Input
Amino acid sequence: MRRLSRKKALSLVKELDAFPKVSESYVETSASGGTVSLIAFCAMALLAILEFFVYRDTWMKYEYAVDKDFSSKLRINIDITVAMKCQHVGADILDLAETMITSRGLQYEPVIFELTPQQRLWQRTLLLIQNRLREEHALQEVLYKTVLKGAPTALPPREGASMEPLHACRIHGHVYVNKVAGNLHITVGKPIHHPQGHAHIAAFVSHETYNFSHRIDHLSFGEEIPGIINPLDGTEKITRNNNQMFQYFITVVPTRLNTYKIAADTHQFSVTERERVINHAAGSHGVSGIFVKYDTSSLMVTVSEQHMPLWQFLVRLCGIIGGIFSTTGMLHSLVGFCFDVICCRLKIGVYRLGEDVQPHDQMNNVNNHPTPLLADDGPQE
Output
């Protein structure tokens, strides 16, 4: 009984076979079919290789949400060189809450403003990348994918000792501020804070020494991420006027970066630049210096690196192979059908032409046949 049930089950499974086998004696091969098969196999292999490269590649996914973290501090990373002596300039931050943050987290280092050939080459390369980033926004994804843990990209140090006087001041470091709009001042005199407001002691600095030509080697918000190029990195402004004011209006967007190499909370920002000469007689009021006015966005951007799952790659691969196989089979059948129709019409035309010619030739043979002369009944006497 068990054997009979097994045989019935096996026969039932055989009846459900959706891939019936055709005997090789009923299969006819042709040169055209072999050529089409070879082309189909080459196309399958090529598309499968390309699909594998797509599977290995990753892309960045951007998600937007409301930033609910309003109580944390915002870190500002600064590396700016001003063409004035360190004792003549001061940097501080004043936010909308009238909270003044002095430059305790910043260092003042006397340096040479002019760059060496190696440093100038670095700056030109950085500016070239900045221009390409403005034109091709997709390059930012490449930077996100290649970031690594370590020290951030910075201006290479000056080679060897120089005998030139140190007439410039490098202001670098980081400070923590409230997560509200604020203003970073770099102007003449050291900052002081008093109950009536905010001021810089500039009375002992000669007006002729004012020179706010500057170079921004690095300016970022949040955690420093190596390999990320910020919009103001490499910016250099040269002025010959002592009363020049430089203003940078920045909108900071909180950004959470999650890639396969790094996970960090940082900030992106966009910037608008403006510069003008202070001339009270002409109605252009203000204070000479460098002013970075920033404001935070209420939206947070989450940038995550995505990868194609294995099941999706297999499905796409099966679709490529099955699609090419079916399409080439239909095209081969269609071409063969058209070829057979054309050949059959030609054969029918030749056959009909032969039928029309044959009766005409027979009539000509009859007409051209010589009539035999009648023989005499007998010899004449």
